[in-house]
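TICKET: design request
STATUS: open
ATTACHED STRUCTURE:
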């Protein structure tokens, strides 16, 4: 079976949402909880491990409808991190539920999908301080 390209996948997702009666800004008819559909663009994957050695992958993606964080310089961020209250900078993000994946060696692992605003994504790409 052929994989749909990005435009076809987006069109299919919109069609399915319309058929289900759920649209951006809509609400789940059962729970009446407002929501916004986020269709992220690819970013990068970070690999880490739990204390027990299990691999964990963090898929960092980007989407325009995730709020931007407050603009901060590298120098200001470093000062904040070295201060007595290093929690003064927050990055708005959408974090998906953990899900099981198979790594390239065929072993089970856990993955998280994290979506941030594209402007902060670009700042992370350009700055080691913001990546770490």
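STATUS: resolved
RESOLUTION: sequence designed for all positions
ATTACHED SEQUENCE:
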């Amino acid at each position: 079976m052929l994989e749909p390209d990005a435009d076809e996948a987006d069109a299919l997702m919109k069609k399915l949402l319309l058929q289900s009666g759920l649209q951006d800004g809509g609400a789940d008819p059962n729970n009446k909880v407002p929501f916004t559909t986020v269709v992220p663009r690819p970013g990068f994957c970070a690999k880490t491990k739990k204390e027990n050695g299990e691999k964990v992958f963090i898929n960092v993606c980007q989407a325009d409808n995730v709020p931007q964080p407050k603009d901060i310089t590298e120098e200001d961020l470093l000062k904040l991190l070295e201060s007595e209250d290093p929690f003064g900078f927050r990055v708005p993000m959408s974090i998906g539920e953990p899900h099981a994946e198979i790594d390239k060696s065929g072993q089970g692992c856990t993955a998280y999908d994290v979506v941030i605003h594209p402007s902060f994504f670009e700042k992370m790409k350009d700055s080691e301080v913001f990546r770490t």
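CLOSING REMARK: The mean pLDDT is 83. The helical segments are 6-20, 74-82, 118-126, 128-131.
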